[in-house]
Structures are given as structure tokens and as C-alpha cells.
Amino acid sequence: MGTSKYSPEFRADAVALYHASPGGTYASVAKDVGVNHETLRTWVWDAEQAARPGAVEASAMEKENRQLRARVKELELEREILRRAAKYFAAETSW
Length: 95
Description:
79% of the residues lie in helices and 0% in strands. With 95 residues, the protein is mainly alpha-helical.
């Protein structure tokens, strides 16, 4: 991921403006602050997720789970390669 062109303060201000605009849409508030409406929607969603109780622990847990799943997948692939190699060499030596 590259660096963001928007500061955390700018993002926080944009999210606060969205929440302070009764009846305001993502598109209208985004136009006012000069960002894409999907960018603002993502910032609002991220802010709401961060405000949830236990959000930091949950996101850390989710990150660890993703890493562990990737490691399991890698180990399963390695095991399959070794199994195939053992089968190949066993067949090779029994002539």
C-alpha cells in the first residue's frame, strides 16, 4: 500500500462532517470536502468499526487468523509436494 494523500486529521474531519450533516449523503458531503464518495464511505465505515468495543482486539485476531490460514495453506502444499515426491521415488526404485 502506498502513502495516503489525506491526513488522518482530514479524514476525521470529513467523517465528523458526514455525521454532523442530518440527511446528508456520502456523495453530497464528499463533494463538499473534495473526495470521492466511496472514499468517504470507507472512512466512515473504518471509523465506525474502530469505535466498536473490542474492535482493536478483533482486528488483531482477524489479522492473526489470516496469517495462520496462509501458513496452513503453505504447509499443506509443502506436504503434498513431499508426498508426491516420495510416491515418485518409491515407484522409481521398485523396478
